[in-house]
Each structure stands twice: as C-alpha cells, then as structure tokens.
Amino acid sequence: MSLKIHNVLTREKETFTPLSEGKVNMYVCGPTVYDNSHIGHGKTYIGFDVIARYLRYIGYDVLYVQNITDVGHMLGTGEDRVLKKARQMSAEPMQVVETYMRSYFEDMDSLGVQRPGISPRASGHIPEQIQMVQQLIEQEHAYEVNGSVYFDVSSFPEYGKLSGRIVEDMEEGTRITSREEKRHPADFALWKKAEPEHILRWPSPWGDGFPGWHVECSAMANKYLGHTFDIHGGGIDNIFPHNECEIAQSEAAHGETFARYWLLTGSLTLEGVKMSKSLGNTLTVKDALKRWRPEALRTFILSSHYRSPIDLSDSAVEAAFKGWQRIWGAVSLVREQLRTAAAGDASEAVTAMLEKSKADFISKMNDDFNAPAALAVLQDLTRQVNTLINEQGPQTQGSLSAIDQLYRELGGDVLGIIPEQADASSNAEREDGLVRLLTTLRAQARANKDWATSDQIRDQLKELGVVLEDRADGTTWKFE
Cβ of 93: how many Cβ atoms within 10 Å? Predict the structure, then answer.
C-alpha cells in the first residue's frame, strides 16, 4: 500500500507523490517565542515529528524547515507579542526571543521531538521579506499606504480556498486605522509602519517598519524549499488567516503552487475546555513534565490521530502511560533475557510474527500517518512477545535480537517512545533496575524460606502494576 495523505487543500485523501523522487521538502509553522511552550505546541510538533520520522523510515530524504517567529506576530490590540513581553520583563526584545527559543527547544527535546533541519528566524530574513513585498507591489497584488503595505485580496480570486472562507463574508478588523487604510476589510498587512515607540524596526523602501506575520513564512519557505514544495504543516487554529494568507501572497508573487499537500493538526483541550490565558488554564510543557513522564505525554498525544482534536486529562494520560509501560515492560524483558540467552538464529515462528507486525504497522502509517492504529499494532506485538517468553520459555539470541530490533525501529525510530539504547540515567531504566533488585531480594527470601517477605514484595509490586511470574527457570515480571 502506498502512502496516502489527507490533503486539507483538496479535502481528499491522496496518494503521496513528492516533487522529486526520494526527497521530501516540508515546512511547518513554528512557535512565536514570547513565552514558554504549552502542551498544545507539544501536540502539533510531536505530530509532525512522527510524520518526518516515518517519511525517513520509508526511505525519503526529508528537509524539514520550521520557522521561529520573533517579530511581527501581533495581538488584537496591534501590539507585537515579543515587545509586550519585553516590556513586562524590562528586557530587550532579543533577550525575550533567546530565552523562550531556548526554552522551546528544551521542551521539544524533552518530548523526544527531533530538531528540524533548519530553524530560520523571521528577524534574520528581513531582506527576503522586503523583496517579496516589492515584487507583490510591482505585480499590483499589493499597495502602500502611509508607510504600510497591504495585500489586495481582490487581486487573488482563489483567496479562501484552504479555509473555505468567502471574501465577501469576512468582517472588518477591530482597529480603526486598519479599516481606514485598507481598501478591503480582508486585505492583510505585508509590512507595517513602525510608530516612534516601536523598537523592532528595519529600514525599507516605505520607511522604517516591520514585516507582517504571514509574509515571513512565505519568504523563508521560498528561500529554503523553493517556490513549490511538498508538505506544509501547522495547527488547525492557524488555517485562517495565517495559512490562507501564505498561499495568497506566495502564489500571487510566483504564479506557482505554494505547497502541494497541506497537513494540519487538531486542537488540544484541557478537561474539555480550550486553553486560554484569560481563563488561566494554559498548561506549559514544563508544568506538564512535572506531572507526567515524557513517555506518558508522547504516548497520550499519539493515541489520537494528528488531525483529530484531543482532550487532556489525568485519566487519559495515565491510561496512555499504562499502555506505554506494557510495551516498555516487554522491551525490558527482551533486553534482560538477551544478556544470558543461548546462541541461535531467530525461529521461523518469531520471524513470521515480526514480519506481520511490521507489515501491519506500515499499513497503518501509510493511511495518513495513523499513529493510534500503529500504536495498537505495537500493543498487539507486546501481547505476543509476553506470551512467547512467559509461556514458551527462553528464546535464542537471534529471536530476542530480532524482536528488540523491531521495537527499536517501530517504537523508537518512528514513534519515538522506545529509546534506542537503555540509558542508566533515565527514569525508565531506574524503574527496571529497582524491579530487578526487588525480584532478586525476593528470590533470596524464597531461598531462605522467608515466605512472608517474599509475599510482601510480590503483593506490593502488584499494587504498583508490576506482576511477577515464578517459573522453573526463574522469575519474570511485566506491567499490568
């Protein structure tokens, strides 16, 4: 089965065919770095992390570009988000940017999100943005008024094709100056005149000013990926106006398709309520990681399709964590037994089991990157592995190595929930070590006929979700 992708632009599931054979160029709208990242960012960027990982897994050379917005993203009041934060912190704007850009990458690293190939900053690409604005003016797709430049939506008949919005139905902005300056309420800013108090400003043919939020993505995508590229990603909340404006200005400037496939992630709510600073229910990634392990959060996010909305709650994350523990328990058991396993090739039965699991996994991921279904394949593999080891006895090195390798590929390389190598400093490895220690102490108690201690260790581990199984060749354990 070939890879099929739900294209938001066409509203259809299409067979994926990149522009260049064997290569995928992908652009994803990145964060505005004026505050700590919230868990909604985690959902979006884990989603695209898995998409990029899977594309590489099936053989594509992926160039993943994700911008950093450090200027031009305005509040409804017309104030730049970075400048507002700088004023609150009594800091320089670029101090704010550096602080929260580093914080963003730290958060994504903690969640197992691999870094993009290129992370361009908007403020570092002002010349490219000015050049694009000039081109749009020359082609009569934009006009200048009092030092600001606006895109003329009437010059691009397809405006609204991504979101489905109709220009005639769009309401005016709330700012009086915007209504007075613009020819049409839906026209959007490509370049804004900087008022005397506006710190972030650059010289331009229209006077000192700063770029509009939308133009930065078009300019940077064009610079690194060309006029037309394969995949554009982002969150569903930005479909309008941001993504819509990207398409209009890019295709008007170059007369070519901007992005061929549009992938947008669903929203995330907290206990059924949309996150909002005004409601005080914004959960940062840092705070989330104080409550749950990164494996729990990542597995929880992958338990929902990237296009679907998801509601975060304690019970949902705990359920996802238990599912991860079952998988990790099987992986740990396999790796533990590998240390003492007898030499030998993988059995035919194990080889057949793994081939089927891999084929099922690929089939699910080829269906629009269906991570929840792929995760279910790993869970089913885990049940089979536990049965194999606990009921059929010790396995050969070849069988155990093949099982471990498949977990590394599917659970590690693609889904990012299984570490490639056990890290003695990780919480997961510490837990494994503690369970092994308690199992050893229980074995000593049994050898000394100290049944009370033996039963106490078994019962207390069971309360923690760890089940011990006594066999003739020793005691094994697994997560419930």
Answer: 21
- Give CA–CA dist 45/110, Å, rounded: 12
Do 391 and 349 touch, CB atoms closer than 8 A? no
Write the DSSP string, 180-226: HH-SSTT-EEEEEEPPTT--S-B--TTSSEEE-HHHHHHHHHHHHH-
- Output the six-digit token pair for 350: 């194990």
Domain layout of the chain by residue ranges: 4-265, 427-480
Max intra-chain CA distance, the chain: 90
3-class DSSP string for 10-58: CCEEEECCCCECCEEEEEECCCECCCCCEHHHHHHHHHHHHHHHHHHHC
CB neighbours of 387 closer than 8 A, spacing ≥ 6? none
Q: Assess whether the previous peptide bond of 372 is cis (omega < 30° from 0).
A: no
Q: Does the pLDDT at position 432 exceed 70?
A: no
Q: Which residue has the higher pLDDT, 372 or 166?
A: 372
Based on the number of CB atoms within 10 Å of its own CB, is 406 exposed (0-12), middle (13-18) or buried (19 or more)? Answer: buried
Place of tokens 């839906």: 186
Which of 322, 336, 267, 297 is CA-nearest to residue 44? 267
Contact 116, 64 (CB under 8 A): yes
CB atoms within 10 A of CB 321: 20
Residue type present at position 128: E
Packing angle of the helix pair 294-302, 39-57 (nearest 10 deg): 70
Q: Are strands 23-28 and 229-235 parallel, antiparallel or unpaired?
A: parallel
Tokens of 312: 């975060």
- What residue type is assigned to position 426 of the chain? S
Provide the 10 A C-beta neighbour count for residue 109: 12
Per-residue pLDDT, 177: 44
CB contact burial 234-245 (16+ within 10 A = b; e otherwise) = bbbebbebbbbb
Residue of 416, 425, 359, 454 lying closest to 109 (CA atoms): 416
Place of tokens 């964060």: 31
Alpha helix positions (H), 226-313 = 244-254, 285-291, 294-302
Give how far Cα 100 sits from Cα of 68, 88, 234, Å.
10, 14, 19
What percentage of the chain reaches a pLDDT higher than 70? 92
In this prediction, residue 97 carries a pLDDT of 94
- Kindly indicate whether the domain formed by 4-265 is annotated with CATH number 1.25.40.20: no
Residues near 314 by beta carbon (within 8 Å), at least 6 away in sequence: 291
Does the pTM surpass 0.90? The reply is: no
